[in-house]
Amino acid sequence: MRCHIVLLGLILASASGCDKTETNPDPAAASNTFDSFDNLTEEDSAAPTPNYSEREGDRYFYVSAVSEEDQKKGVAVGSVSQYRYLGSSNGVVELQEVTESGQIISTIECRTPCRVLKITTGGTVARMPYNPQSIAGSAMEDAINGFLTPAKGAKNEKEVLSALPANFVGTWNEELADCGTGNNDTAMVVKPDSIRFYESTATVERVTMQGRAAMVSAILSGEGASEKTTIRMTISADGEGLTIGGLTRLRCPAE
User: Fold this and answer.
1) Core-most of 56, 66, 86, 234, by most CB within 10 Å?
2) CA-CA-CA-CA dihedral for 100, 158, 90, 103, to nearest 10
3) Cβ distance 128 to 121 under 8 Å?
4) pTM here?
5) pLDDT tens digits, residue range 194-210?
6) What share of the chain is helix, strand, coil (3-state, %, to 5)?
7) Which residue has the higher pLDDT, 28 or 240?
8) For residues 190 and 166, what is the distance between their CA atoms, to the nearest angstrom?
């Protein structure tokens, strides 16, 4: 059973999608501007949210849920586990579970899309199914979603690209039934060098990747005006959903 993380008295839970509106959205507003991967606004609440309780330096703290058996024994709070993010290389995401003194308990690796965790403890390797409901799984999910900052000296802290990766490219719409009809203003066409919204187009200048999140620096043009903007895009684990500013669009079938 997955721990629900408490941070400063607030419970953060993932929402799913958003209501479809009848009015034309403002593509520039829909894209939203963020200064960093950690600087999210309330409008991004429908996007994935971090699982960790607290952060201290390069350590992230996760609190486990209290089992029914422990509750019967009078245990009121769960245990705390600490993780460091070592980055990713060739699609393999790597974490370390550490003690309070900084000793390494185990190393956890998973190749994206993550299905099996490889856990190395004292030279012994064990493998377990990837389960975001577990403590190790929730830490891995945070790493994959781009919520963890690699520890100092870690590999591949952030990958800077000149164009969007191939898995972002395609035609997207909030409703699959509206694909190719022109009936839905959420229609969006993503190419390696551009993002075309209903009434504007973002020309890609630079893409900073961290996990499945892309920070796109672009020039947004529309209705005779243009401005620099930063668009945060998060692609789902299966590659069939793309979230921008709290709105999740689905990949339209290839024509």
Assistant:
1) 86
2) -10
3) no
4) 0.46
5) 999 999 999 999 998 87
6) 10, 40, 50
7) 240
8) 10
